[in-house]
Design goal:
This protein has 820 residues and is an alpha+beta fold. It has 25 helices and 18 strands. The strands form five sheets. Strands 2-3-1-4 form a four-stranded antiparallel sheet, sandwiched between helices. Keywords: Cell membrane, Membrane, Transmembrane, Transmembrane helix.
């Protein structure tokens, strides 16, 4: 498929352009119909909702609030009414507004109307739209806000609250995505040094995410998709889309630098890294689909939006990307790289620098590295012990927003619980005893029974505490467990606050089963891929540690308030109940991605050398740079969602950014390799009986096996990879001075006794090297370094790997061996 896409690149490009614009036009024309469905089966709030639906089958549109406060005097003063009443009348005449009710109608001025606070300084009016919040035109919302704000004057403050009003103050859609893409572009340019190579992952990610977003908008008309789902889909899609394209472009560039033609390099890249991308994308989708075991309707829409975006991002990476590689050809390299390739010919990729030095350090000090990394993760995980799940509301908005100020004014004038009243729904009309018991219940501020309808009575209960206060949750439990049963009336507690509590409770109860499911799935996949019990067990434990630490960061920032105002995301509050499931799903997928990328290189080295220390050192040295680069891109993309203006999106962005940072920079580059050094050969143990029964899963074929398909001569291999053609064995060891000091960047060449070069590599910073041997026999092994004399020695290689250390003397000693 990669070769077909490469050769028919114009067809592929036209198909993708047509798809993106076609779906985009259809999505724009149809609009959106997102719905936050929090109703839960077998919960008390769901039973209350069903009774409410029976009593009031024709539900009105969204109800928003206009709140005003005077600094001096009373809201009943003529000077205040002369400004507020015309504004309310103007709003009531607008097309799309069904009704406006306030404190100045029918007796509203007598005895402190229901819409006036006791001290007379704060009042409110309710604006009922003819449509639900998501369907109210933004132009109408702006007109309502403008009409209300026109009534302001010195000493008279006017604010607005409600779901429709909140939509008007959201950040422009696409701002966070644009900032994340720009930051990712900077990282890509620094990694590749080529403008065109930098553009490739960006274009691929935008194509996948753009199509996914518009398709999600279309699907919102056929199924319940929450309004946060497309934002989470774009967040996840951009991260994985750019990363997946990064892996493929990196492998493609490596192939060209090794002397392969662009087409063969693209085919090789898609047959190696492309297969890994398919595996990684599949694991992310499987993890996201694991949310379905939670049996929460709200999460079903999230699964649809995020999985669809991931699938389209993977599809773009394996079809659109090879077509773009065909358009660019050798220009995927920078001008400097192209000139060097022409002048010096193909060169082996040298793994040196910081990655090699760090890998050698971890090998020398595995215990101290593991302990330090574990201590950091445990300290960061401490706040998770106090995590409280819930739902954010307008009281968590930034204090500069009109919705937050309206929320605070209502709480000031009518009590904290006014913003989240409870609805006790009774199946019957005789509720006097129940009302009396509720009124005498501690924690209740006011009680009012609505006239019965269709044999159902609704009792409005205003708590003395705010909707997010833990005491409000205790009041709900008290009503359900004690007050209602004692009254002998069949009733249920509903309302937004009760639904949020039930949603958080159900999520918390089912979360352990979800975690067990995805951990078990990851264990099985890694066990099959790496033929080991210890490697997947280590990965499972690391995933739990990473999750705990990332949630600890989340609790410290958003629940404890350590930086919410600084980040500009509003007031601290409980962690969104759906967020742990979302974060764990994506963290599982990304951890699998990074673990496979890291351990597959270690496993390949282990198969060739049976040297665990070398396998871990080589795998970390060769993969850590790409893993860290990919993680840095995801951190930039996720962190940018703080700019979205939505608290849930900011939580998801910061939480995922912290999870990726901790996973890539501490776990995969420190704790995992250190633990594998300490475990030794036990890493690769698998019972013989299990080995025979497990299916064989090739996550990524060896690059060398595909490279021979190219028509050009095989270039020199990587310094840590066996040569093309399937070697029978290897020679590995260290290049050192007579004093035992490692010699890095030394050229180590394997030659036949007749002088023909078979393999050539460059030693790492710790002096380690490995060359591939085509078959058992006698060979010449030569080592050269600018600061040392050259040496060539005859070596005899049998059926297995040969460990051979090379000693180089200083130039001053004057000893020179002839080396071809």
């Amino acid at each position: 498929m990669a070769r077909w896409c490469y050769r028919h690149r114009l067809v592929v490009l036209l198909l993708w352009v047509g798809t993106v614009f076609g779906v985009g036009i259809a999505g724009s024309a149809a609009g959106t119909d997102y719905a936050n469905v929090f109703s839960l089966p077998d919960t008390d709030s769901k039973r209350a909702y069903d009774l409410m639906d029976r009593a009031f089958p024709e539900r009105a549109g969204d109800v928003d609030t206009v709140v005003w406060k005077v600094d001096d005097g009373s809201v009943r003063d003529a000077s205040v009414r002369s400004r507020i009443e015309p504004a309310l009348e103007r709003i009531g005449r607008m097309d799309g507004v069904g009704e406006v009710t306030g404190p100045y109608g029918e007796g509203g001025t007598a005895g402190g109307g229901a819409g006036v606070s006791r001290d007379g300084t704060i009042a409110y009016a309710q604006v009922t739209f003819t449509e639900q919040a998501n369907s109210v035109p933004k132009a109408l919302i702006d007109d309502v806000i403008e009409a209300a704000r026109d009534a302001e004057r010195d000493g008279l403050q006017v604010e607005l609250g409600g779901q429709a009003i909140a939509r008007a103050q959201e950040a422009t859609q696409g701002t966070s995505e644009a900032v994340g893409i720009l930051a990712a572009a900077v990282v890509l340019f620094l990694a590749f040094g080529s403008f065109f190579a930098m553009l490739l992952p960006i274009v691929v990610a935008i194509a996948g995410v753009g199509t996914g977003m518009m398709a999600t908008a279309l699907l919102s008309h056929t199924t319940n998709i929450p309004d946060v789902a497309p934002l989470l889909g774009s967040l996840i899609g951009l991260g994985v889309g750019i990363d997946y394209a990064l892996f493929i472009v990196t492998r493609h560039r490596r192939g060209i630098l090794r002397g392969m033609k662009p087409e063969e390099a693209a085919v090789t890249a898609l047959n190696t890294s492309g297969r890994a991308v398919l595996f990684a994308g599949g694991t992310v989708c499987i993890a996201l689909a694991g949310m379905l075991v939670m049996n929460l309707r709200f999460l079903d829409g999230v699964v649809i939006a995020t999985s669809l975006t991931v699938v389209l991002s993977v599809l773009a990476a394996v079809t659109l990307l090879p077509a773009l590689l065909g358009v660019l050809g050798p220009r995927v390299l920078s001008r400097r790289e192209r000139r060097r390739l022409v002048a010096a010919g193909p060169e082996p990729e040298v793994t040196s620098g910081l990655a090699a030095r760090w890998s050698a350090y971890v090998e020398r000090r595995p215990r101290s590295t593991a302990v330090l990394a574990l201590v950091v993760m445990v300290v960061l995980a401490v706040p998770v012990l106090s995590i409280r799940l819930g739902t954010s509301d307008q009281g968590n908005h930034r204090d500069t927003t009109t919705t937050r100020q309206a929320y605070d004014l209502l709480a000031e004038g009518f009590g904290p619980g006014f913003n989240g009243p409870l609805q006790v729904v009774a199946d019957g009309t005789d509720t006097k005893g129940l009302v009396a018991r509720i009124e005498s219940t501690p924690g209740v501020a006011r009680v009012a029974a609505v006239p019965p309808a269709n044999g159902v009575t609704v009792i409005q209960v205003v708590p003395t505490t705010s909707p997010q206060d833990e005491r409000t949750d205790l009041l709900i439990d008290r009503l359900r467990d004690d007050v209602i049963p004692a009254s002998g009336t069949e009733a249920h507690v509903g309302g937004v606050t009760a639904v949020s509590k039930d949603f958080a409770s159900v999520t918390g109860d089912r979360l352990p089963y979800f975690i067990a499911t995805i951990i078990a799935l990851g264990f099985l996949l890694l066990m099959v891929a790496f033929r080991s019990l210890v490697v997947p067990l280590t990965a499972a434990l690391m995933n739990l540690v990473a999750a705990a630490a990332s949630f600890g960061v989340l609790v410290a920032i958003f629940q404890w308030g350590w930086g919410t105002e600084l980040l500009g995301v509003g007031k601290e509050g409980p962690i969104a109940a759906f967020l742990p499931v979302i974060m764990l799903s994506l963290l599982f997928g990304l951890s699998m991605d990074y673990q496979v990328f890291l351990v597959s290189r270690m496993h390949e080295e282990w198969v060739h050398t049976k040297d665990n220390a070398r396998a871990v050192r080589v795998g970390l040295a060769e993969t850590s740079r790409v893993i860290n680069c990919a993680a840095l891109i995801m951190i930039c993309v996720f962190s940018a969602f703080v700019l979205s203006g939505e608290l849930e999106a900011a939580m998801a962005g910061i939480g995922l950014a912290a999870a990726v940072a901790l996973d890539a920079f501490i776990l995969r580059t420190a704790l995992v390799p250190a633990a594998m050094h300490l475990l030794g050969k036990a890493n690769w143990w698998l019972p013989a009986g299990l080995e025979r029964r497990l299916p064989h899963l090739a996550v990524e074929p060896k690059e060398e096996a595909t490279a021979v398909a190219g028509p050009s001569p095989s270039p020199a291999p990587s310094p840590l990879s066996p040569s093309e053609g399937g070697p029978a064995s290897v020679i590995h060891g260290f290049v050192r001075t007579a004093d035992g000091e490692p010699v890095g960047d030394a050229d180590v060449t394997l030659l036949t006794r007749g002088g023909r070069r078979l393999d050539r590599v460059t030693s790492l910073a710790d002096g380690s090297y490995i060359v591939a041997v085509p078959a058992p026999g006698t060979y010449l092994l030569a080592a050269t370094s600018p600061a040392h004399t050259s040496r060539a020695r005859q070596v005899d290689v049998g059926e297995g790997p040969l460990v051979y250390d090379v000693e180089l003397a200083g130039v001053a000693e004057g000893e020179v061996d002839a080396v071809s």
